Amino acid sequence: MHQTKIRNFCIIAHIDHGKSTLADRMIEYSGSVAKRDMKSQLLDTMDLEREKGITIKLAPVHMKYKGYDLNLIDTPGHVDFSYEVSRSLAACEGAILVVDASQGIQAQTLANVYLAMEADLKIIPVLNKIDLPAADIPRVSAEIKNLLGCTDDDILKVSAKSGEGVTDVLDRVVELVPQPTGSTDGPARALIFDSYYDDYRGVILYVRVVDGELKKNDTIQMMATGTDSLALEVGVLSPVMVAGSNIETGQVGYIVTNLKTTRDARVGDTITAKRDPSTELLAGYKHVKPFVYAGFFPMSNEDYSELKTAVDKLALSDSALQFEPENSPVLGFGVRIGFLGLLHMDIVRERLEREYNLDLVVTNPSTDYRVDMNSGETLEIRSASDLPDVAKISEIREPWIKGEIIVPDEYIGAVIQLVSSKRGIQKNISYIDSRALISFEAPLANLLTDFYDQMKSATSGYGSFNYELMDYRVEDLVKVDFYVADQIVSALSVIVHRSESQSIGRVVVGKLKDVIPRQNFKVALQAAIGGRFIARADLSAFRKDVTTGLYGGDVSRKKKVLAKQAKGKKRMKRFGKVDIPSEAFTVMLKRD
Q1: Phi, psi values for residue 494, rounded to 5°
Q2: What is the pTM (predicted TM-score) of this model?
Q3: Which superfamily is assigned to 292-365 in CATH?
Q4: Which sign, positive or negative, has the C-alpha torsion 170, 172, 177, 179?
Q5: What is the pLDDT at residue 459?
């Protein structure tokens, strides 16, 4: 098909503003899927996506409408998956911005608009959920006009649920989204914007062809990695795979390769055909750097190889996932995985447990720290147990984020109080009609565990939060170790600010007391900085009444039996080993 008849666009929005529902209606109204095959969240193929009602993986789909080829990419809305959005934008010329008519512009709406503007896309504003009783069309329209500088006529008012106004959106896409402008007779160049591993077919790539064409059975080359492969099958997704003989300039499609390893097809790489190779790489994506790390260990060490294989496969379809082997004296062999946020970590954990039937122990999440040594060397530490000897360290730097929270006016005080309790610094407050945009800076480590939940509680669910990594700052940080029955448990160690070390030590020791089962001997639970103990709780022993068979007589008989029991418990304590349950390694995540 000629490029003038192709439109490539994506849908961007804040979480739960109706992207997937709008995509469903567009697929239905363009006749891409038979009515009997339609179901809600058609592009959300994972069970997890359907259960949680959120989009986790971007999903491309090919539609035919009024003689045009429309290629739509449905994107996630949660802040943890914004890297998926940036990959989608690089494969498109236009973006549909969906805004909820009752909630209005939220934090992630702003973040995605800025990403689309950076990518120089044509933005089409759409006001969704206009049939809700709580919809406030004039107010939200005014917010969109202030944000984009558009007129009232530019904003399309739709209800994705009922289908009202959806054909207007398709017409507007055909009218306003620019056509692709690639070279049809030049060497083939295609951008990999997503990929996944299929157990039966190998590595499958989702690509946007920028120049030339790619044919079935072509020998293709990944230009950045230099890997050669064979295009066993090419075609488009509508939304199931429809094989063809080739994919042409400007089209979005898929390639089934004969690659067997997940590292050869990097997302953001450029594909070219060996018959007429290109020498110029396309601009890839910005490299995504994870900043939340957690150790994943199998319940049984025998399952370690299965865990490693499973993480390997997940890493292909998730370019942000980075991992390395880890060994813990308590938990055995496992992998330390890097994530973009806590939801990202939660999704990966659930996928490993469900899709690969693994029983996992996940340690407390931490962030990475930069440690400047006295020798002038700089180390990157991802786990508190890796921290070198304090005497050799000149300073420790921790990551800070720049955050934005949008809330109704009456919650400003509660949000500022929450930010300052996390060692955050409130920088600016601006207003969008009756709501405030609070900008702040804060240390990432303090926001890792339950900041999002606390923010939702403080704002009665009306607040929305977005953040990005800013820089690394020198702080007075210390490593807090935890001892169970005089044995240090390195998997529990944390790096915290000195001013918070005592309170965190007390809280964790208290939570450990709740989750570690009682033993036949007394167990001491302690927190320490270096050689100085800062918190302690004792787990009392089980007590068996050894005097039940004694009737009357001299009291010394009872004392003798109790002394014998105490002596036995002392010996047990000396040789006793405490089994620590898996819940103990996630005490930081537990709510009070």
Answers
A1: -135, 155
A2: 0.70
A3: Elongation Factor G (Translational Gtpase), domain 3 (3.30.70.870)
A4: positive
A5: 83
Burial of 136 (0-12, 13-18, 19+ CB in 10 A): middle
Domain coordinates in residue numbering, the chain: 3-176, 189-273, 292-365, 370-475, 479-589
User: Exposed/middle/buried for 379, CB within 10 Å: 0-12, 13-18, 19+?
Assistant: middle
Which residue type sits at 251?
Q
pLDDT of residue 547: 60
Q: Name the band, by pLDDT with cuts 50, 70 and 90, for residue 261.
A: low
Positive/negative CA dihedral, 247, 250, 254, 256: positive
Extended strands (E) in 258-377: 270-273, 292-298, 322-328, 332-339, 360-362, 369-373
165: left (phi over 0), alpha (psi -120 to 50) or beta: left
Strand locations in 485-540 (E): 487-488, 494-497, 523-529, 532-539
- pLDDT per residue over 280-314, tens digit each? 777 755 566 777 888 888 887 788 888 888 888 77
What is the rounded CA–CA span in Å between residue 342 and residue 348?
A: 10
Considering the domain 479-589 in this protein, what is its CATH number?
A: 3.30.70.2570
What is the residue type of 283?
Answer: A
Cβ pair 328, 295 in contact under 8 A? yes
441-483 residue pLDDT tens: 999 888 877 787 788 788 877 777 777 788 888 888 888 888 8
* Helix or strand run (H / E) with residue 400: strand 393-408
Using alpha carbons, list the distances in angstroms from residue 98 to 72, 79, 174, 574.
14, 16, 17, 64
Q: CA 198, CA 191: separation in Å to the nearest integer?
A: 20
Residue 293, C-beta contacts closer than 8 angstroms, at least 6 positions apart: 336, 337, 338, 339, 365, 366, 367, 368, 382, 383
Enumerate long-range contacts of 117-122, CB under 8 Å, 24 or more apart. 119/86, 119/89, 119/90, 119/92, 121/89, 121/92, 121/93, 121/94, 121/95, 122/93, 122/94, 122/95, 122/176, 122/177, 122/178
Which of 53-57, 199-203, 343-347 has the least mean pLDDT? 53-57
Residue 74: what pLDDT? Answer: 66
Class of 370-475 per CATH? alpha beta
Fold adopted by 3-176: Rossmann fold (3.40.50)
Residue reference for tokens 């209800």:
159
- Give strand pairing partners of 205: 195, 255
CA distance 61 to 88: 12
Residue 194's closest CA among 60, 55, 286? 60
Q: For 109-132, how does the pLDDT look when each residue is reduced to its tens digit (9 = 90+)?
A: 777 788 788 878 888 888 888 888
CATH class of 189-273: mainly beta
- Whether 479-589 and 189-273 are alike in CATH topology: the answer is no
At 291, which amino acid appears? Answer: F
- Per-residue buried b or exposed e for 140-163, using 16+ beta carbons within 10 Å of the residue's own CB: bbebbeebbeeeeebbbbbbbbeb
Say which amino acid occupies 188: A
For residue 180, the 8-state DSSP code is P
Residues 6+ apart with CB under 8 A from 63: 26, 27, 30, 32, 69, 70, 71, 72, 238
